[in-house]
Amino acid sequence: LLEGEEGFALSQGTWQRDGWRELDDLRKKLENLKELRELVRSLGRSGGKGPLRKAPEELESTRHPPGVVRSPLQPEEVRGLARSGDLSRMLPSEMALLAHGWPRKVKVPAAGQDAAAAAAAVGQAGGGVATASTEDAQLIEEEYFLPGAHAARMLHRVRRAERMLLSYERCGWLDDTPSRLTGRQEIRPAAEMGPIILCLDTSGSMRGAREVVAKALALECMRGAHRQQRPCYLYAFSGPDQVQELELSVDLPSLEKLLEFLSCSFQGGTDVDKPLQLSLERLQKDEWAKADILMVTDGEIAPPNEKLLADIAAAHDELGLEVHGLLVSSQVSDSMEKLCTHLHVFKSWSAVGAESWMY
């Protein structure tokens, strides 16, 4: 920020804005707002394989956008033990059971040999010391089974038929496979997360502690996006067609707009249709196709337009869009449940100087 035309001059431009005090206060509050930091980390979908890191778990599911899933079709590593009917993966204990039921072979004298030759043949086959010459003995191989061999062979066959052989679990990661998010986290080879689109309610009912939460979340989205090198865009909405757009990036023009936003108070009505329509339009751009939407509101909103709900559902099926909602209220509204695929209720009221019973 010090590389601009003005250089480092506290008496000029950006350094004289009142928003810096707000920014510093929000930074201190964010230290105790772990749930906001975790929420920001869960936003945005990965763009394929990448380094191992903590990321949302995905399961293979038809008619969903492509993702990265764990699959036995890509046996890259041994993950643990499992039950199966695969002979190539079974444990040595299962192999020992199979070997016990396998027939042994022993050399015995052919029919018509005398007793001395027979004794010598048996002694030679069993590893003993023969007391008679076996040069002229004619030996043939015969099969025999150890005690319990039949039972061991039948037990192995039954375990294999029921796919109950104790086996090594070998699996890996398949890319570009239709998958869905489960809502859980796991260590997986995921690429960097996608962009963030933040829709922030700036109506009059968001004043007070709710306003502090909303501004703190905007700051955390900007910090998280900058740290992970991904885009972030803000739609601050109030009444019909009253939407303020702001790209949350760490450069001088964006920071000046953010400081101006932080120094203003919230007022006006609430219309969620327009910011969501703008968000869906932004998703059509290639660089924003992997973005998720986060809506922050107190839940006092009108029922959303049916066409808007249909467009969000289509984006969810085609692009994998996830709409997260953060309710800064103790009441869960039906409208937010219809709009959001993941609904979060803010609970850390004491960190912003308020009590939960007040909201």
What can you see in these coordinates?
The model is unreliable at 8-15 and 125-134 (pLDDT under 50). This protein has ten helices and twelve strands. Helix 1 (19-30) crosses helix 7 and helix 2 crosses helix 6. It has 359 residues and is an alpha/beta fold. Among the domains are: 19-43 and 195-352, von Willebrand factor, type A domain (Rossmann fold); 70-101 and 148-172, no CATH class. It has helices at 19-30, 34-41, 92-100, 115-125, 149-161, 209-227, 252-262, 273-283, 306-319, 334-339; strands at 49-60, 66-71, 77-84, 104-109, 139-144, 165-190, 196-201, 232-237, 243-247, 292-297, 323-327, 342-345. The protein has a six-stranded mixed beta sheet with strand order 9-8-7-10-11-12, with helices on both faces. Strands 1, 2, 3 and 6 form a four-stranded antiparallel beta sheet that branches. Strands 4-5 form a two-stranded antiparallel ribbon. Helix content is 32%, strand content 27%. It is elongated, with a radius of gyration of 35 Å. The protein starts with 18 loop residues before the first helix and ends in a 14-residue tail after the last strand.
> What's the β-strand tally?
12
Low-pLDDT runs of 5+ residues are 8-15, 125-134
CATH topology of the domain at 19-43 and 195-352: Rossmann fold
Helicity level, as a percent range? 25-40%
What string, H for helix and E for strand, traces the elements in order? HHEEEHEHEHEEHEEHHEHEHE
